[in-house]
Design a protein that fits this description.
It is found in: Cell inner membrane. With 176 residues, this protein is mainly α. It is built from 5 helices and no strands. Helix 1 runs antiparallel to helix 2 and helix 2 packs parallel to helix 5.
Length: 176
């Protein structure tokens, strides 16, 4: 595999891993916010006005940046009945064929998310809650997450081409 594609794959894989690890901290923020809300509401009869917004924003971040991380570790749902019985080479062929569908889908997702992001900033859409959080922030995270997922898909494609060329798995930077 040439240096450019190896560098691309390693860079995208590192970025997806890093973003996924950062996402775990947002999960912690969400859990502690919910825990605080439950304790405040049911033990002290003093519910918060911010916990729902914080949890919503954390969930948006987790959902948007978690895709590339999940794809890196091959954690997406698939029908394994036939796939697992295929040889490494045939799996690579199947993955390359389905990449076409993935690429078309990701093109639509990326363009739609960027349009939504620009619209949110243009007309200054905010949440209907007390905190009035600008929707542009969440939509920016979703747009960035969709680009990361598309890049991770290209990385997986390059790895599958490597399997076809050398009939061996691509050396992984990270292991589950």
């Amino acid at each position: 595999m040439d240096k450019i594609s190896k560098s691309f794959v390693n860079s995208v894989d590192r970025l997806s891993h890093l973003i996924g690890e950062i996402g775990k901290w947002f999960l912690m923020v969400m859990v502690f916010s919910l825990m605080f809300e439950v304790i405040a509401r049911y033990f002290f009869k003093a519910p918060t006005i911010w916990a729902a917004d914080v949890c919503e924003q954390c969930m948006i971040l987790l959902g948007s940046i978690g895709g590339a991380y999940s794809y890196l570790y091959d954690q997406f749902v698939r029908i394994d009945l036939l796939y697992e019985k295929l040889s490494l080479r045939r799996r690579a062929i199947l993955d390359i064929c389905t990449f076409v569908i993935f690429a078309i889908f990701m093109y639509m997702v990326v363009t739609t998310n960027f349009e939504a992001m620009f619209t949110a900033y243009e007309i200054n859409i905010t949440s209907p809650t007390i905190m009035r959080i600008p929707y542009g922030y969440g939509r920016t995270a979703v747009a960035i997450g969709s680009v990361l997922l598309a890049l991770q898909g290209i990385s997986i494609l390059i790895k599958n081409i490597h399997v076809l060329r050398y009939n061996e798995p691509y050396p992984q930077l990270y292991h589950n």
